[in-house]
Write a structure and sequence with these properties.
Layout (H helix, E strand, L loop, with lengths): L2 E6 L3 E5 L6 E4 L2 E3 L14 E3 L1 H9 L4 E3 L2 E2 L2 E2 L1 H15 L5 E6 L5 H15 L2 E6 L2 H6 L5 E6 L4 E7 L2 E8 L3 H16 L5 H9 L4 E6 L2 E6 H27 L4 H4 L2 E4 L8 H8 L6 E2 L7 H42 L1
Helix pairs in contact: 2-3, 5-7, 7-9
The structure holds adenosine-5'-triphosphate and magnesium ion (MG).
Pfam family, one: MreB_Mbl
Organism: Archaeoglobus veneficus (strain DSM 11195 / SNP6)
Keywords: ATP-binding, Cytoplasm, Nucleotide-binding
């Protein structure tokens, strides 16, 4: 039985077929211009991942789609990204284990499960996003806050059962939108989220554009102070919502408090979040917060498949011994 852990995020798609090595590519699907003639029955060219990112930066008339927007699912691009991930991993899985925002609707989950089953011809498991990280860390009772690009998801588990959770429409994008405006006002240039990540996480990095025959650059130091202020109020919003969710819970549950997602890697974010919870519990982080959900989905799928396999074996054994019993019974009678 082959499981695949698949985490399709607003910004990155992460997938693994062994729970250790994770393939990552940008969650972008680009549809090229409609063709005048279609000889292969394809009316539009579809580009996925790195290729899509390159295409949207260099061609006009392309329509770019992301799988999640404001915590809602866009099916068509989601399925393109899922197919691409399996192609890159070069695997035909028996089960795909994946996640959706905690506050996704039941209908959304059912539709996604149906699409995956029909189009990828596999079984499917869908978890609330942060559960992946908890499973990866071997925690069955605890709290996980996942700061992603588009949403922040909070989940509380007790003995591997969902107790409470929430989805905030505030992710890294909120922070980046604000910094982007500051840079635009300061230097008159627009920067991409990818450039912003480098600018914030690499000390000597510079972003530049040529304007009117001149070089205009922005460096890490130019945005440091404003970033610090914005980051603090951003973390403050996320921690106050988390505290609302934790209100009234037993300390035994909150003892394991995990922060994950790419947002937790931005400078100062983890430290600020930890400080805000110093009277509650120690905040811990997985070794790689970007890939930990995908690895955890894999682990969960594997455990569930093994349990199912054992159940089936036990049933088979019970059937066999029943049949044996009958046979013996018959023999006796004869
Ligand atoms: N070293 C890094 N490399 C890449 N991204 C980083 C790094 N450090 C911080 N980040 C931030 O992490 C973000 C991606 O986080 P993550 O992969 O958890 O989001 P996502 O899963 O795509 O989004 P969501 O869960 O909201 O759908 C990037 O947009 C970037 O801002
Ligand atoms: Mg995510």
């Amino acid at each position: 039985m082959i499981p695949v852990g698949l985490d399709i995020g607003t910004n990155y798609t992460k997938a693994t077929k062994d729970g250790k090595n994770v393939t990552i590519f940008p969650s972008i699907v680009a549809y090229g211009e409609e063709k005048d003639w279609s000889l292969k029955g394809e009316e539009k060219e579809v580009y996925v991942g790195e290729e899509a990112l390159a295409i949207i930066q260099s061609l006009e008339n392309v329509e770019a789609m992301r799988p999640l927007h404001e915590g809602r699912l866009m099916h068509q691009s989601y399925m393109e990204l899922a197919k691409h991930a399996l192609k890159v991993l070069d695997v035909k899985p028996d089960v795909v284990a994946t996640g959706l925002p905690v506050k996704s609707s039941k209908k959304e989950r059912e539709e996604l499960a149906k699409d995956i089953k029909e189009q990828l011809k596999t079984d499917v498991l869908i978890f609330p996003e942060p559960v992946g990280t908890l499973a990866y860390m071997g925690i069955d009772t605890g709290v996980c806050v996942d700061i992603g690009f588009g949403t922040t998801d909070i989940v509380v588990l007790g003995h591997m059962e969902y107790l409470r959770g929430d989805t905030m429409l505030v992710g890294v994008d909120w922070l980046y939108d604000n910094i982007e405006v500051i840079i635009r006002n300061k230097a008159g240039i627009s920067v991409t989220p990818e450039e912003l990540t480098k600018l914030l996480t690499t000390p000597d990095y510079e972003v530049g554009r040529i304007r009117g025959g001149k070089r205009i650059t922005i460096s890490h130091n130019d945005v440091k102070d404003e970033y610090e202020k914005l980051m603090k109020s951003w973390v403050e919003r996320i921690s106050s919502r988390t505290k609302l969710i934790l209100e009234g819970l037993s300390t035994a549950i909150v003892d394991k408090l995990v922060l994950t997602g790419g947002g937790s890697l931005l400078p100062g974010a983890y430290e600020e979040f930890s400080k805000s919870f110093e009277d509650v519990a120690e905040v811990i982080r997985p070794d790689d917060p970007i890939t930990s959900n995908a690895k955890g989905y894999y682990t969960l799928a594997k455990i569930l498949l093994e349990e199912k396999g054992e159940e089936a074996k036990a049933e088979e054994a019970a059937e066999e011994s029943k049949a044996e019993g009958k046979k013996k019974g018959k023999v006796k009678k004869e």
